[in-house]
Structures are given as C-alpha cells and as structure tokens.
Amino acid sequence: MAKNLSKRSNSKPMPHDSINLDLPDSRITEALGAALARAMPALSAGAVVYLQGELGAGKTSCARSLLRALGVTAHVRSPTYTLVDNYRVANLDCVHIDLYRLNSAAEVLELGLRDLTGPGSLMLIEWPENGGAAVPAADVNVRLLYAGEGRSASLTALSSLGRQWLLNLVTDTSLAPYVSNLT
What we know:
The protein has about 180 residues and is α/β, with parallel strands linked by helices. The chain contains four helices and eight strands, in the order E-H-E-H-E-E-H-E-E-E-H-E. It has an eight-stranded mixed β-sheet. The longest helix is centred in the N-terminal third of the chain and has 14 residues, at about 25-40.
C-alpha cells in the first residue's frame, strides 16, 4: 500500500501552522490525544504523525489517548520492544511505531514502514529522528517537552493535511484553556 509522499515535507512548517499548549498534568496530555482524534480530517491519502520528546514526556500517553478516542479497545502499550503495533478501527488502519531502540535508517527500512502507509491509514511514530530519511514524511509533528512540573506541546503542520488537522483542532474548545499561543 505504498503511496507518493512527495507532497509532504519534513523540512519546514507552513506559515501560521503551529499550536503551543501548556499541559499541566497527564490528564491534559491525554485530552490532547483525544482532541487530535476528534480533529483528524478525512484520510483519503493516509496520515503520518511524529511524536517527539524526551523519555517520559508523554508520547505514548498521547498516542494511546488518540487511539482510544478513535475506537481502539485493545491494550495500547508503548511499542518500544515490538517496534510496530497495528490496530484496525472501522475503515482505518492505525500503526503505532517506536524507533527509540533503532540506530540507523537501514534498520528502519527493514520495518517496511512505507508499505504501511496509504489511503485509510494513520501512522503514529515515536522517536522519528532515529529513522532519518527512511521514515515517511509527517503531516503533523507533536513535540512534547518538560515544563516545570508539567509538560508543554508544540504542534506543527507539515503538509496541507496537517494544516487542516490543526485548523480543526483550534475549534476544539476542550483545549482552549491550555493554548499558550497560535501562530
């Protein structure tokens, strides 16, 4: 199910396509994941979301909440050891990937990630920076950072689909108290 990824770029965000949020506790990190699921546009070409941040910053919590909000009922764990976990919901193939333990693009190529992308697919990739050019290009980058006792999140659209996703997300009033800026 490979697809043409040429319309996406890993290099620069589109102007005015980022959202910054303050996440005072894990409950709000989970709320972000659920809001991302609600805001997800139709995936006629599929979507890729990067989840970046230090160990314990909330990448898996955000992914788990997103998958649950989409209807996944199976146990959603960090795929640190399995590397790739697949979930099927309605007409959507969800793939949760953790590249933390990988050290090269060659190792990532062996996973066949590009074969897992395509119409009706959602790929959530933790630690995408470990895969270099072998990682499919992202539509949205979610960067989670430690911020005092809590966390912060910076979401950046990297494609037209990502732009639509963030535009949809801005209308979700459940996150309004946590938005620190819109650019």
